[in-house]
Every structure is written in structure tokens, then in C-alpha cells.
Amino acid sequence: MILLAALLLGLLAGPALALGLRRPYRLPDPRHLCLVPAAFLPQLLVVYLPVGREMEPVSAAALTLPVSLVVFLIFVWLNRRIPGMPVVLVGLVLNLLVITANGGWMPVSPETASQLPGGASPSEATTGIRVGDKDILLRPEDTRLELLADRFLLPEWLGYRAAYSLGDVFAAAGAFWLFASPPIMSNLNGSNNADD
Fold first, then answer.
1. pLDDT digits (tens, 9 = 90+) for 47-99
2. Strand ranges across the sheet with 130-131
3. What integer is the mean pLDDT of 175-185?
């Protein structure tokens, strides 16, 4: 959710900046775009289709999120010279570390999960079960790299509650920069050319 919001905000900010700077706005032109659907397909199976949502975390389904992240990491690495991509790369690496360290799912604490829609109180929560789309319920003391887990919550005033991680913050910031920066980079390039 936070990544999608950053993409949309970047797509709004980029053209607005271009207009203000009187520069053309061009969408980024990444290479190897075929890796993006290849990265998304495993998540489609496990996260969004009913058959995948019924799989338990101990099953082979737990491999799909790390595999998906690795494929997306390859895409981002191959496009690392595009502004914003290095920040996305940091976010993906942080998420991959915590997911891999916790059995292939993003850990979320009972306290955090209890504040999400349909969340049970922390005292009634059963740890080790899958919650939400990509999370597994783990107590902080049982979570490896707990600082990188889904531990932050969107504010209530947004009307939509979701948990997100530090890696998500980096990925979202990079995604925003990716789409908001073309007119700025064009302006900088124009200034550099003028100085030559």
C-alpha cells in the first residue's frame, strides 16, 4: 500500500514539477522490464489467489516471497543508474533480509496486528500463523531482525490501516523519487550543458 501510494504521488509530483520548471516530463525508461511481471507472478499465486492464501507458512509457499524479491532485486540492480533505484534497492534488501530470516514471510507482532482490521487482541493471538497478505504473526522476542519487521502503522486518519516496514519506507521513497525526479534531472542536465 505504501509503495503504491508513493508511485501515485511520484506520478503526480513529476509532471507538476516539470510544469513548474518548464521542462518536459518523461517517464523513466528502465531496461529488462520483463523481470517485473516475473517477480510479481509468485506473489500473485501466494498472496492474491485463494489457493495460495490457504497455504500454511511452513509449506513451499514460503519460498515464493524471497524468490519474488530476488527477481525484483535483479531488475532494480540492472537499472541502478536511474535516480531513485538505489533507494529502492536498499528497501528491497532490508525486506529480503527480514523475510528470509523469518521463514519466508514478513513478521508482524501481535501488538501491531491487533491494530489492523480484524486483528485479535495480543493475548488471544496465535503466533506462527499467517495474517494479512504477506505477514506471519511472531512475538518480538521470537523475531529475527525485529527492527526490520512490519512494525509501523499508517495513521488512523487515513481511513485505511496497514502495517509496513523500514524496508517499505526506503522502497517507497525510492519509487517516489523515480517518478518525481525526471524534470529535476532534466533541469540539472540543462544547467550542466549550459555551463559547458
1. 777 766 666 555 667 888 899 999 999 999 999 999 999 999 999 999 999 99
2. 106-108, 135-137, 130-131
3. 84
Closest CA relative to residue 72, chosen from 96, 56, 46, 103: 96
Q: Which amino acid is at 184?
A: I
Grid coordinates representing 122 are: 495480543
Residues in the chain: 196
Closest to 58 (Cα-Cα) out of 140, 132, 128: 128
Comparing CA positions, the residue from 85, 45, 80 lying closest to residue 65 is 45
Letter for the amino acid at 103? Answer: G
Can you tell me the mean pLDDT for 170-189?
Answer: 81
CA-based nearest residue to 142, from 169, 117, 110: 110
Q: What phi-psi label fits residue 32: left (phi over 0), alpha (psi between -120 and 50 degrees) or beta?
A: left
Q: Which three cell numbers stand for residue 184?
A: 529535476
Q: Cα(196)–Cα(130) distance, rounded to whole angstroms?
A: 58
pTM: 0.86
Asked whether the CA dihedral 140, 44, 13, 31 is positive or negative, the reply is positive
- Alpha-carbon 187 to chain mean position: 29
Q: Which of 132, 183, 196, 190 is nearest to 28 (CA)?
A: 183
